[in-house]
Amino acid sequence: MWLEPIQHQLTRGVTPRALALSLAVGFGLGTFPVLGSTAILCAAAAAALRLNHPAIQLVNFVAFPLQLMLLVPLLRAGAALLGAPAEALTLEPLLLQISADPWGAARLYGRATVGAVLVWAVVAVPSMFLLSRAFRRLLRRLPAVQGSQPEPVRGRP
Predict the structure, then answer these.
(1) What interhelical angle do 38-49 and 53-62 show, nearest 10?
(2) Torsion of CA 129, 149, 43, 33, to 10 degrees
(3) Which of 6, 43, 96, 103 has the fewest CB atoms lying closer than 10 Å?
(4) Rounded to 5 degrees, what angle do the CA atoms 56, 66, 121 make?
């Protein structure tokens, strides 16, 4: 079957815990509110935390539509958090401001982006933890993952 090589690459040498963490971090970082940065963030997180690179990038790719859906709400929340006018974050006012005052538009968008990252961090970090636990429970039930390295059982010698 054509899925077997992909399944092997995603589950090779990982425990359900490590794979669950890879999926959760990939999903969380995949919603980071700066377009074009998530692949680099996921690669850095995978290297730093010794996570499964293909799994984290796959989930990052799957999370892209959610990143797009969350971008404007996060920018508006970030603008409100740091005192930038949120109404200027729609397309027409932003284009008018860019043509009238490019530096002012950059400051407005920059401040909103910094605020969006702060709001994202407050929501995403606990969400990644919860997702990791949920993915771990799910993955323990999959026979393909159980065939990889066994996970030590806590509380038993």
Answers:
(1) 150
(2) -20
(3) 103
(4) 70
Quick one: CA dihedral 117, 106, 108, 64, positive or negative? negative
- The CA-to-CA distance between both ends of the chain, in Å, stands at 39
- For the entire predicted model, the pTM comes to 0.74
pLDDT in single tens digits along all 157 residues of the chain: 666 776 666 666 577 888 899 999 999 999 999 989 999 999 999 999 989 888 899 999 999 999 999 988 998 899 889 887 766 667 677 778 778 888 877 777 888 889 999 999 999 999 999 999 999 888 887 765 555 444 454 554 4
Structure tokens at 81: 């958090």
Residue 112, judged by CB atoms within 10 A of its CB (0-12, 13-18, 19+), counts as buried
Contact yes or no for 101/62 (Cβ under 8 A): no
Scan for tokens 């290297």, then name that residue. Answer: 47
